[in-house]
């Protein structure tokens, strides 16, 4: 897997969202492709007592991006107690069924996720 380049230090970033539900939102910002047209990308949370993540524990699966995920495809998961139960937290991205040729993602912790999806309305105007 590929670890996120961003790490949260819960020792210095204390009381994030104290008393509120928080969510992890992972957005596809560059569409995913692969040669075999069969890869998926699973996103997991990891926690550890050290910033090098030398003894990291995978604590939850945020979700899985399907093959050929378009820009704007997103995963949303509520942060549960124990998801980040050590001082440091990050995301881990694991490709399955092959290797992705393209794809980029960003992730955020938010209080209110934007989970509204727009669908075509099948109205024809002539």
Descriptive notes:
With 126 residues, this protein is mostly beta strands. The chain is built from no helices and 8 strands. The mean pLDDT is 89.
In short:
By secondary structure, the chain is an all-beta fold. Helices cover 0% and strands 44% of the residues. It contains no helices and 8 strands.
Secondary structure: elements and pairs:
Layout: E1 2-3, E2 8-9, E3 23-33, E4 40-48, E5 57-65, E6 74-78, E7 88-96, E8 102-110
List keywords for this structure.
single chain, 126 residues, mainly beta, 5-stranded antiparallel β-sheet, 3-stranded antiparallel β-sheet, flat
The largest sheet is: 5 strands, antiparallel
What percent strand?
35-45%
Gyration radius, rounded: 17 Å
Q: Would you report the number of β strands?
A: 8
Mean pLDDT, rounded to whole units?
Answer: 89
Poorly predicted runs are none
> N- to C-terminal separation?
50 Å
Count of helical stretches: 0
Question: What is the succession of H and E elements?
Answer: EEEEEEEE
Q: Oligomeric form of this entry?
A: single chain
* Structural class based on helices, strands and sheet pairing: mainly beta
